[in-house]
Amino acid sequence: MKAVTVTRSGGPEVLRVTEVPDPEPGPGEVRVRVFAAGVQPVDLAIREGFRPPGAVVEPPFVLGNEFAGVVDRLGPDGSGWQVGDEVLGFRFLDSQAELVTVDAAQLVAKPAGMPWEQAGSLSASGQTAHLALTLLAVGPGDTVLVHGASGGVGTVAVQLARAWGATVIGTASERNHDYLRDLGAIPVAYGEGLVERVRAVAPQGVDAAFDAAGRGTLAASVELVSDRSRIGTVVDYPEAERLGVRGLRGPRTAARLTELVRLREAGGLRLEVAEALPLERAAEAHRLVGAGHVRGKVVLVP
Predict the structure, then answer these.
(1) Cβ contact 88:102 at 8 Å
(2) What span, in angstroms and rounded, lies between the C-alpha atoms of 272 and 294?
(3) DSSP per position, 181-214
(4) Which residues on adjacent β-strands are paired with residue 29?
(5) Helix (H, G, I), strand (E, B) or coil at 221
(6) What is the helix, strand, coil percentage profile of the chain, to 5?
(7) pLDDT tens per residue across span 125-137
(8) Kindly report the CA angle at 158 between 290 and 201, in degrees rounded to 5?
């Protein structure tokens, strides 16, 4: 099969689309023929040499941690699924390929009317946003500041916070402000003067802040939110430690993903796919995501 392979740590130029052996599902696993696989900022970080806590990964390896496709083979005890089932799911690495094997418990059913590109873009960003807002205890009556609100994680975070009863202020470039208004957020431009702009639209104060962008936004959040346990990031962990705020991490689960799919099916979650590119254009996909101006997600389509 074809797969997006990291040959050595570095920039997008180190990516290669290579032929690798077809994976075979082990006990409790199924194999999925991938129709779409999302590209996450963490993919770029891993390509550059970052490793999540406890992970040992040596090149060459295949990138990607979210996907959607069709079950095409069952491993021993791969119960609960049948060949031909349409699914979306998650695993650490190996998803940006024509085939991926995965624990059967890390899949959920794809609704028939859900486009493949959206299905392949949901798991990582959606679960990151859901987990972060849960850890920050976002709920009815809160005013929440979401940094990077027009990106893949931010798009879901804005809508979840709104669904959970919060008022949302979202930072983004001005070209995405109408988009944020459509999602139900109050947009503000990032950069110098951010604290004053947020205070102008939220004179009642800000209860929680979620950073999905980096770029120094945690320092602004500390000025705006009095309770540092309700400030968190999924991007800038060193700065979080320095400021005494939260680096947000936790497990992905099929139950969390199922909740997101149901919300999308009920019309409460809009998913934006900026680009759907073939595997051979993986380096271009990485450059788009790395530029930090993508609205929603970039996905690869094998």
Answers:
(1) no
(2) 10
(3) HHHT-EEE--STTHHHHHHHH-TT--SEEEESS-
(4) 103
(5) helix
(6) 35, 25, 40
(7) 999 999 999 999 9
(8) 105
Whether the CB-CB separation of 68 and 140 falls below 8 Å is answered with: no
Cα within 13 Å of Cα(302), Cβ side: 27
Would you say 123 and 100 are in contact if contact means Cβ atoms under 8 Å apart? no
- Give the pLDDT score at 51: 87
What pLDDT digit, counting tens, does each position of 61-104 carry? 999 999 999 999 999 986 789 999 999 999 999 999 999 999 99
- Are 288 and 172 contacting, i.e. CB atoms less than 8 angstroms apart? no
Distances from the Cα of 116 to the Cα of 129, 198, 273, angstroms:
21, 37, 11
**Which residues are within 8 A (CB) of 236 and not within 5 positions of it... i.e. 6 or more apart?**
211, 214, 217, 218
Reduced to 3 states, what is the DSSP secondary structure of residue 136? coil
Categorize the per-residue pLDDT at 113 as very low, low, confident or very high, splitting at 50, 70 and 90.
very high
Q: Are 194 and 220 in contact (CB under 8 A)?
A: yes
How far is residue 219 CA from its own chain's centroid? 23
Q: What is the pTM assigned to this prediction? A: 0.94
Q: Which domains does the chain have, with CATH numbers?
A: 2-123+270-301 (3.90.180.10), 137-247 (3.40.50.720)
DSSP 8-state symbol, 296: B
- Using left for φ > 0, alpha for ψ between -120 and 50, and beta otherwise, residue 269 falls in beta
Please name the amino acid found at residue 180.
L
DSSP state, residue 42: H
Query: Do 73 and 221 form a contact (C-beta atoms < 8 A)?
Result: no
